[in-house]
Amino acid sequence: MFDIIPLPYLLVNLIPRSAPFYLEGSIPNPPSSSFPAHGFDLLSPSTVQATRLEFDPRRSYKMQWNLNIQRQLTRSLALTVGYVGSAGVHLAHMIYDYDQVPPSLVTFDGTNYRFPIPPGNNLKLVQRVNPNFGQIRSTDFQGHSSYHSLQTNLVQRLTKGLTYQIAYTWSKAIDNGSSTSGGSDNLNSLQGPWPFCQRCERGPSDYDIPHSFVLTFNTTSRLWRR
Q1: Which among 56, 57, 45 is positioned nearest to 20, based on CA atoms?
Q2: CB burial readout 126-149, b (16+ within 10 A) else e
Q3: 135-159 and 49-53 as β-strands: parallel, antiparallel, unpaired?
Q4: Which residue from 156, 203, 177, 9 is spatially nearest to 96, judged by alpha carbons?
Q5: What is the pLDDT of residues 31-76, one digit of tens each?
Q6: pTM score above 0.85
Q7: Can you list the residues of the chain whose pLDDT is less than 70?
Q8: Residues near 129 by Cβ (< 8 Å), separated by ≥ 6?
Q9: Environment class of residue 163 by beta-carbon count within 10 Å: exposed (0-12), middle (13-18) or buried (19+)?
Q10: Which of 52, 55, 155, 189 could join 138 in a cystine, given CB atoms 3.0 to 4.6 angstroms apart?
Q11: DSSP letter string over the chain?
Q12: Angle value at C-alpha 150, between 145 and 151, nearest 5 degrees
């Protein structure tokens, strides 16, 4: 088990990009006349972006485990087969917009979440966590990751001028968000469509590579002379 220290870089992108130091906002139903040069004029205290920080977060940590079996097939050929796994708990989790419909107004019918529809479909009337801001970016510590893999390695030690190694890994990496300090470090995922449903975001990691095959070999000049 390993502690994961919450270093300052996790927050450096959030704190400076918050009112009143930085003006960025979210404006529903802007008039067509605001595009392209007058959108900034529409920003107000109730539409600018703010920052939310989780107070006294739980300690992040990671667990790793493995089991390997090695077998000597011949005097110079060895095979290793192993299971390697890991899990990260209470990881830093970036939320692009925390100021959305609160869970108390959302119902679950056993299959889907049902959100309230504002009168006249007017997005300005949508009930949010804090209507005093247009957008609230947040970093909480609700992230979770897991990794499971079958790893094989076949090694041929130097025999008659030839040595080689064959490695194959079959794995699966799953999390509820693959980024920490940015919306998407790998530009592969939508960060936090609704921040109050952690299981809705659970899926293959941006860096998930199910199959990996590597072959390396080396020969000596004596082999080529033959």
Answers
A1: 45
A2: bebbeeebbbbbbbbbbbbbbbeb
A3: parallel
A4: 177
A5: 888 887 787 788 877 778 888 877 788 889 999 999 999 999 999 9
A6: no
A7: 13, 122-124, 180-192, 221-226
A8: 98, 99, 100, 102, 136
A9: middle
A10: 52
A11: -EEE---THHHHTTSSSSTTTS--B--SS--GGGTTTTSGGG--TTTBEEEEE-SSPPPEEEEEEEEEEEEE-SSSEEEEEEEEEEEEEEEEEEES---S--GGG-EE-SS-EEPPPPGGG-GGG---S-TT-SEEEEEEEEEEEEEEEEEEEEEEEEETTEEEEEEEEEEEEEES-S-SSSS-TTS-S---SSTT-TGGG-EE-TT--SEEEEEEEEE-HHHHH-
A12: 110
Amino acid making up residue 143:
G
Tokens standing for residue 190: 């939508």
The amino acid occupying position 170 is: W
Type of residue at 126: V
